[in-house]
Amino acid sequence: MDVSQNTVYRVTFLNQGEVYEVYARSVSQGGIFGFVEIADLIFRDETRKVIDPSRERIANEFRGVPRTFVPLHAVLRIDQVEREGEARITPGAGGGPKGEVRLFPTPIPAPASDS
Fold it and tell me: What is the sign, positive or negative, of the torsion defined by CA atoms of 66, 37, 70, 78?
């Protein structure tokens, strides 16, 4: 999916009962089967006077992470957008990390081998 350095992707995925929305310059199938590789994460200017705890939390979680691998079944949506927005974490269907509804991991079938 990586087209150019000017391309920006918005990736929405589930993580421990919460919905993460991040912006990145590179999204691909990656080298690990069943995972989407998200690289070059984009976070807005940290010198703003208004502090958003949700933004601070996601920025701290991904600080120093050049690329992350998200399980394919956890990805909700990948959009190519014109410019980056604000990365955020919102409660999922279960009401957040303490919610009782969670995404149950499902196996991804391996590609058929040519025998």
Answer: positive
